[in-house]
Automatic annotation (TrEMBL), chain A:
Bias-annotated ranges (Basic and acidic residues): 134-145
Name of the protein described by the UniProt record: Rab5 GDP/GTP exchange factor
Biased composition (Polar residues): 179-189
Gene3D superfamilies, A to Z: 1.10.246.120, 1.20.5.4770, VPS9 domain
One biological process term in Gene Ontology: vesicle-mediated transport
InterPro entries with a match to the protein in the record: DUF5601 (IPR041545), VPS9 (IPR003123), Vps9-like (IPR045046), VPS9_dom_sf (IPR037191), Znf_A20 (IPR002653)
Residue stretches of biased makeup (Low complexity): 116-126
PANTHER family linked: RAB GDP/GTP EXCHANGE FACTOR, RAB5 GDP_GTP EXCHANGE FACTOR
From TrEMBL, chain B:
Protein's membrane topology: Lipid-anchor
Keyword Repeat in record: no
Segments of this protein annotated with the region Disordered: 182-205
Principal subcellular localization: other
Record's protein name: Ras-related protein Rab-21
Taxon lineage: Eukaryota, Metazoa, Chordata, Craniata, Vertebrata
Pfam families on file: Ras
Molecular-function GO term, any one: GTP binding
SMART domains reported for this sequence: RAB, RAN, RAS, RHO
Amino acid sequence: MQTFLSGQQLEGSGVCFFGLKAILSSSTVSALLPARSPPAPSSPASREMSQKSERRGIHVDQSELLCKKGCGYYGNAAWQGLCSKCWREEYQRARQKQIQEDWALAEKLQREEEAAYASSQGAQSQPSLTPFSKFEEKKTNEKTRKVTTVKKFFSPSSRTAPKKALAARLKDSHEGKTPSPSISRQSSIETDRVSRDFVDFLKTLQKPGREIHKQSRAFIEGMANKKDLGADELSECVQDFYQNMSDRLMTHFKGSSERVERVMDQVEKYIMTRLYKNVFCPETTDDEKKDLATQHRIRALHWVTIQMLCVPVDEEIPEVSDNVVKAITDVIEMDSKRVPRDKLACITRCSKHIFNAIKITKNEPASADDFLPTLIYIVLKANPPRLQSNIQYITRFCNPSRLMTGEDGYYFTNLCCAVAFIEKLDGQSLNLSTEDFERYMSGQASPRRQEPEAWPPEGPCGGSSPGLAQVYQNLELLTGLEARQERVLEGARSLESDLISWQESVEREVQQILEKYPLEIRTPASAIDSDNVENDRLPPPLQPQVFAG
Amino acid sequence: MAAGGAGGASKTYSFKVVLLGEGCVGKTSLVLRYCENKFNDKHITTLQASFLTKKLNIGGKRVNLAIWDTAGQERFHALGPIYYRDSNGAILVYDVTDEDSFQKVKNWVKELRKMLGNEICLCIVGNKIDLEKERNVSVQDAEEYAESVGAKHYHTSAKLNKGIEELFLDLCKRMMETAQADERAKGNGASQSSTSRRGVQIVDDEPQAATAAGVGCCSG
Ligand SMILES: Nc1nc2c(ncn2[C@@H]2O[C@H](COP(=O)(O)OP(=O)(O)O)[C@@H](O)[C@H]2O)c(=O)[nH]1
Ligand SMILES: [Mg+2]
């Protein structure tokens, strides 16, 4: 069961796991059905096949296998039920449409933005910000300085040369995914909305608004040509941009850091919404590999209890467990945000829910001694998607003033600590012996509960604990599912052998016929009509006669 | 903005200060006393005491102080570098009745100096001086040690609200001096802000190695 479900076989099928449809979408079986082969409805093999499947109680409607376009060829679930030819046509059309729409949207936006400024500029001709070139100069100076950054703590290998093979593999896996038009559609709507908000916000600034806008756009365009840069260089570019922009704003607003921050938040939102796709979990890093490692690690630690971590929350209190659930939801939600600051806000919300849970349990404000273990517990329970990628992304692309001294920065730092702890933790850090820790990690044993009466159970579905009864019920269900899975697999296997033997039988039949009616090619005789029997009955050839006269 | 990162006339300094020390020496009590003026009070309104801020005005300069509490349990010791990176100051607290807690402070000092050099302002704080009768760390030893490592020593009692205002005010002044010296060293205001860029400046070629060594020497 494990191996079957964990493969990519079910990917994208979305239909019932145990139906034959899902199996046909699996790579093994669909490979047997040629992509574009005309069906042979009356062949003896196909009759035999459908009889066999009926005996096993699996019914395949021929029409379900055919291309949904009705072209008469076999379809494939991987191509949404179309045959290869129809799929290609369909996909190209969708892509073309998407590209055209994107262009139209981009042009529309540009026009709108220009118009917005034309109208706001009109009467007043105010001093704009200092030209960009000056800061470019400074930027290059800065680059030569030796600055070691936070990132180094987390990504010791990110500065090492990109591992070509891995990058190539990741690239493959990315391209292998069929892009979902609805998702990219949605994200372009969001980009559209963010751009409009940005323009609206800048309009309220009047004077420097246009300049900020121009520079932000120029920066995004410049970044489009830098796709090949490593993650650190990309981060460097973005951070330089933040730095230059906030320096100039600082001069412009005469040192009012609050106003600068407000503008910088909007700038970050605008540029990172647009850059997100290219700079989140880039192929040049091993972010994705680390994500998977962390995910596996957290899964392997499923047995860690609240007592082992000394978490000061009592989930028996409904209000507390409510806050725990909310904290888990918040930290999971982080992955769905595109702007670094929005991701940070998720961590902050998560932390606030944790503080609530602690305060209700202990009736005193939470200290770091309470907060960190609880956050670790929440992360273990949530197993947030792409945790490492998100942390790296925030570290690389967040406006630095937020990460360094602000409240959000404190919670983010604690999340980094939680992840570091989870990566490194051993028996000692949970007050366990090394042997116990090893046994729990390998799944050979699971820790006994603190309350002896709840464990061991009296018998299956023992009345004492409803949770235990549920566990047994689930186990039974799983056993049942496993049996069904086995049956389905068996069916798939025999279908496979049916198809192979069908092919063989056709070959055999053809062979037999060929043997029965050998094709004889006889060499022709010397005269054209030498074999002709009828010739005997023909009159003799005319003889030449001489007439005297 | 960080480390004095502000230009123009109305300069605002923002400082990050970490609280380090063994569990139960009184870190949380100190900061709650300073920011909320409460001690062991069941009616504290604040939701949490792990991140607190205080605004000060020192010699006409505005200062935003962010105080980061750290988890003091032994099992979290190795996480220290993640907490104290970017810090302008560190408050190392021990309990005057507990000799062990003073040893822990010595270990922290070693680690911080190794990781952050002299950029960080260190304060060594002997807390619970109201329990003078049970004192187990001699005043002279503690003060001599502090001087030998370039730190300042303070005596406090969170219970009696003694020495705490002085501790934070003094620390802020020292951090301002460091920030101003930094600015001067970097010339005019133009490049000064680059200090604030993305935080940590570990002027060390191998921060990884240093982390490992620092943690190693203190966990033993
Ligand atoms: N007598 C006395 N007790 C203190 C003082 N400061 C803290 N405590 C007590 O020491 C214990 C631990 O304090 P806490 O602030 O939680 O220490 P932390 O673990 O370092 O944060 C608590 O019971 C406090 O009431 C103090 O100045 N004098
Ligand atoms: Mg504490």
